[in-house]
Amino acid sequence: xxxxxxxxxxxxxxxxxxxxxxxxxxxxxxxxxxxxxxxxxxxxxxxxxxxxxxxxxxxxxxxxxxxxxxxxxxxxxxxxxxxxxxxxxxxxxxxxxxxxxxxxxxxxxxxxxxxxxxxxxxxxxxxxxxxxxxxxxxxxxxxxxxxxxxxxxxxxxxxxxxxxxxxxxxxxxxxxxxxxxxxxxxxxxxxxxxxxxxxxxxxxxxxxxxxxxxxxxxxxxxxxxxxxxxxxxxxxxxxxxxxxxxxxxxxxxxxxxxxxxxxxxxxxxxxxxxxxxxxxxxxxxxxxxxxxxxxxxxxxxxxxxxxxxxxxxxxxxxxxxxxxxxxxxxxxxxxxxxxxxxxxxxxxxxxxxxxxxxxxxxxxxxxxxxxxxxxxxxxxxxxxxxxxxxxxxxxxxxxxxxxxxxxxxxxxxxxxxxxxxxxxxxxxxxxxxxxxxxxxxxxxxxxxxxxxxxxxxxxxxxxxxxxxxxxxxxxxxxxxxxxxxxxxxxxxxxxxxxxxxxxxxxxxxxxxxxxxxxxxxxxxxxxxxxxxxxxxxxxxxxxxxxxxxxxxxxxxxxxxx
Length: 561
Prior knowledge:
Layout: H1 3-22, E1 31-34, E2 37-40, H2 41-69, H3 76-89, E3 96-98, H4 100-107, E4 113-116, E5 119-124, E6 127-133, H5 138-141, E7 149-153, E8 156-157, H6 163-170, E9 177-183, E10 189-195, E11 197-200, E12 204-205, E13 208-209, E14 215-216, E15 218-220, E16 225-230, H7 237-250, E17 255-259, H8 268-278, E18 283-288, E19 295-298, E20 310-314, H9 321-331, E21 336-339, E22 347-354, E23 359-369, H10 402-416, H11 422-425, H12 427-437, E24 455-456, H13 466-469, E25 516-517, H14 526-535, H15 542-560
Parallel strand pairs: 16-17, 17-20, 20-21, 24-25
Antiparallel strand pairs: 1-2, 3-23, 4-11, 5-6, 6-7, 7-8, 7-9, 9-10, 12-16, 13-14, 15-16, 18-19, 18-23, 22-23
Helix pairs in contact: 1-2, 8-9, 10-14
């Protein structure tokens, strides 16, 4: 037997061994039908085994022919990985293969935590420009400001740099240092050396920050109406939200708006935990798949915020876990839903570790239903008349066109930018923030780094085709995710992270999720930022205004009764 035949036989044997592990037929009794004829189960199993053998032999023969006869040498691993990717492309857009080169990024995408310096950047006119530092991070404490231009990273020029390359250079192991040369808006250059820390991205945000850079959650002081934005659902979201609600309670909050616009989702367990805060009993969500039993999550009375009038803001980019929360609160009559029809992503992905964790397969295994039993997922070929997504309540539909959406994003971005004040002038205030802002490591290897945020059309995705939704473009943020970071749902409670068959999943560069409309302008000086902020004062958030109007009417009715 030739060495080549041994190689081919080895490939085939390996593939058949894998197939025997992954494709074990269920044990059953009685007869089944094959081509209209009744045959016993053993015969069916034998037919299936023979078919698998022939198909895997076809694959092995193809690999062998390419390796032997293709005009140029082909790396075997690249060939097999290409074949695996080909398999997943026949599935839905949320199932994909994560190769060894991407596995660390994939694992750093669950808890919105990563090792870095904590900065949002963009590229403008070939320059790496700071959008904003994150509060309490090395970049924040090092005095980096919105509009600063990073000219070098470790003495290497950033001129013409891509965001992916900027990420690679600025990220690193916790405790290591990175040196940047920064040109401030006044033209002065400064070299700063920053020690990388574990960065945890906030997922619970307010409307604007106070003079200490803390979020303000009380939007209407006279009516005592609170406002909370959820940008994603991570392991820390429920805890962060409880802290925000405790602050609002101390301020005698009488009504609450939860803003889920541009929230692409996250962990299923986080969505369930947040939903349970506002619903005291009944079903929150259920999941069921072809080879997974039906599972139902129910609410509990303990810790429920009862009696607080609520409104939920959604738009065409609210997806996945955010749809679970909106649907739950709507079905239970706990909140009115205001805005636009949501994206329609109602599937659950589990992650199968491959090669002892060196690579992984993210696979859609189930779909979820809202408490009413209605479907959320927008299946391929679905049209606007089909049942999917979460609709605003009657009388609360506020559709925005592309221009309004872009204007809102500019308005929102300008309100989120940190303005230079105490943290660059007062060492004492920085030290005080150190203790409060340092992120603690997660119990599992799960963190969030940069986002491959798509930059696409601002049209409502309800009008897009599946092909449109699967297209990805260049990211806008280099080290931190925008509100449109790619995330998927995962039944993480059913699959421990150290389980060889399934680990928790949060976000992934190869997954299709709602595209964030591109922000056509980015600040490159503090003066420009201020000018844009002044221009955005004219923006009227009609969706939020309608939600607040509803809460005020509810409070007035409560007072009358």
